[in-house]
Amino acid sequence: MAIETITNTTATTATGASATSLNKLSGDYNSFLKLLTAQISNQDPLKPMDSTTFVTQLAQLSQVEQSVTTNANLESIAQQLSGVGSLAGLGLLGRDVVAPSNMITTDGNGGPVHYRLAAPANSVTLTIRDAQGSIVRVLKELPSSDGTLNRADWDGMDYEGAPVPDGIYSAELEALDNEGNVIASQAYTKAKVERLSFSQGIATLELANGEIVTAGMVETIE
User: Fold this and answer.
1) Which among 9, 39, 109, 115 has most CB atoms closer than 10 A?
2) How far apart are CA 86 and CA 152, in angstroms?
3) At how many degrees (to 10) do helices 9-41 and 52-89 cross?
4) pTM of the prediction?
5) Where does residue 55 rank: exposed (0-12), middle (13-18), buried (19+ CB within 10 A)?
6) Between the CA of residue 171 and those of 90, 168, 175, 190, 205, what are the distances in Å?
7) Residue 172 CA neighbour count, 13 Å, CB half
8) Contacts (Cβ under 8 Å, ≥6 apart) of 21
9) CB neighbours of 106 closer than 8 A, spacing ≥ 6?
């Protein structure tokens, strides 16, 4: 099991940009105040200058300053929340998760294959193949409901009733409607999280069956 360095390039860059904008605005703001003070001090007492324009500009600068400061604060909060999400992802390391995959890792006991169907099916068949692509087992008359996470259990036996060697096997789903048309399906299998990495606040999981998924793709944790 391994964890890669946690990085958050986007949040850091955004915060730096806000800081640069705020510094530039601060310089313009101070320059404007100096200019306004100088003009008021040197105005002709008999022809006082119209201060309405300066007051309006001063108010606008204040609003912009507040907006930039608010954005910087929001970006800081987003960065902190991203860190919290990264720490939460650490809890998946070493755990068994059910995620999109058609690969089954077995130690002689087989394993469950979960799946979703795009529509109700008339028949669902699951074909188990070994690493060479040879058919090991075919499971028929499986649950055929749509809108739910169906489950098929493979006991780790081949078509002759003998236990298969430990390793990684593939599961092929075929769902057909009443007219024999193929129904779209998505398989989910259980595997242990062996490696965890983070990029821009998103946790990426490397599973024991060779699949790479994001934490948001995990259906269940076991």
Assistant:
1) 115
2) 33
3) 160
4) 0.58
5) exposed
6) 29, 10, 13, 12, 21
7) 12
8) 68
9) 154, 156, 164, 166, 167, 168, 169
Structure tokens at 67: 């907006």
pLDDT digits (tens, 9 = 90+) for 96-142: 899 999 999 888 788 899 999 999 999 999 999 999 999 999 999 99
The dihedral sign for the CA sequence 189, 193, 194, 196: positive
CATH of domain 96-221: 2.60.40.4070
The residue to which tokens 């040197």 are assigned: 42
Asked if 182 and 173 touch (Cβ cutoff 8 Å), the reply is: no
Residue 81: its H or E element: helix 52-89
Residues 188-205 have pLDDT tens digits of: 998 889 888 877 767 888
